[in-house]
Amino acid sequence: MKYSYYDIAPPRRSREVEGVWELDKKSLISIVFEKDLHVSIKKLYCLYRKFIEKLKRCIILTKQDILQELADAVIEMDEDIAKKMAQTAIDTGIDAYEAITEGLVKGMQIVGDKYEQQEYFIPEVLLCSDAMVAGIEVLQPYLPVNEKKTVEKVVIGVVQGDTHDIGKNLVKIMLETAEFEVHDLGRNVPLQSFVDKALEVGASVIAMATLMTTTMEGMGIVVKELEKRGVRDKFTVIIGGSPISQAFADEIGADLYATDANVAVRKLKNRQVATA
Ligand code: B12
């Protein structure tokens, strides 16, 4: 089990910790006065600082605490703490991918629940997502890089009508880490653009995301368009997003479906092995 000195205290904890510090500042002062010690204010301040440093070093974080702090930073919309805790995760040897999925993404899932229970609304959700992205930016350089260079190109995007792009961005990051060359069309992507871009860049994979049931059908239209243009065999079509299922992928004739970013990379890599 790895431990870290808790040098940066997130708000939730710092309130408790500051409470202790305040108490101890008072007791320190009272000792000085009770014992009638002749200590200058400067000396008193120095003693206090040293005392705090010792106290800080007594507070340790376990791996589970760090993951929880990452999740809390997202839920509490705190970009600074998300960045600091992401760095703490790295400094203490936590795997960057685990910090993303078991920390930041777990937090975002709770945000999703709060949104559905109307405890959070769109502005809050956007601030939470900013905190998640801030944490990911710190962790991304530490994601393991796949040694085997891949020449494959992927065109990725969120289908027309849908602007949810947090999950798609995660998939993009993981694909890039696995050395795929990713062409990101963004969100609310006109359906024809998937095919046009894939042909233009010579991609072998088309990855489509949606989080809305109302826009799922767009994925099927893209597959049909590939057939219509006689290029269906040139591409592996992979789809994902919370309303998507294997049954839906089968129904529209997509090649692969993945529940999360890691599974998406694994499935694409496995298929490379199969076709090599
Ligand atoms: C964040 C969020 C927003 C944010 C989006 C910010 C952004 N930049 O993305 C904001 C606040 C803007 C928003 C707006 C809206 N939202 Co919203 N939103 C959500 C929320 C709370 C979380 C989604 C999320 O980011 N999850 C975290 C990520 C990490 O998870 P994920 O996207 O599922 O991604 C994972 C997998 O699905 C997979 N994956 C994702 N993409 C891909 C792609 C591929 C190729 C593969 C293989 C895998 C894969 O990998 C990821 C994990 O590794 C969900 C509720 C929920 N519980 O999901 C509602 C939700 C998706 N929203 C919903 C709705 C209705 C809307 C609005 C229409 C609301 C409105 N009235 O205006 C608008 C959408 C407008 C539009 N046309 O797009 C509904 C959709 C309902 C439905 N079934 O159709 C949901 C389900 C909430 C609900 N229950 O009502 N939303």
Q: Would you mind describing this structure in some detail?
A:
Residues 1-20 have low confidence and may be disordered. The strands form two sheets. The protein has a five-stranded parallel sheet with strand order 4-3-5-6-7, with helices on both faces. 59% of the residues lie in helices and 9% in strands. It contains eleven helices and seven strands. By secondary structure, it is an alpha/beta fold. The chain has helices at 11-34, 41-58, 63-75, 79-91, 96-116, 122-139, 166-177, 191-201, 217-228, 246-252, 261-275; strands at 4-5, 60-61, 153-158, 181-184, 205-209, 236-240, 256-257. It has three domains: 4-61, no CATH class; 63-142, Methyltransferase, Methionine Synthase (B12-binding Domains), Chain A, domain 1; 153-275, 3-Layer(aba) Sandwich (Rossmann fold).
| C-alpha termini separation | 40 Å
Strand tally is: 7
Report the CATH architecture of the largest domain.
3-Layer(aba) Sandwich
Q: Which hetero ligands occur in this complex?
A: cobalamin
Number of individual domains: 3
Shape summary: elongated
CATH topology of the largest domain: Rossmann fold
**β content, as a range?**
5-15%
Spatial sequence of strands, sheet with the most strands: 4-3-5-6-7
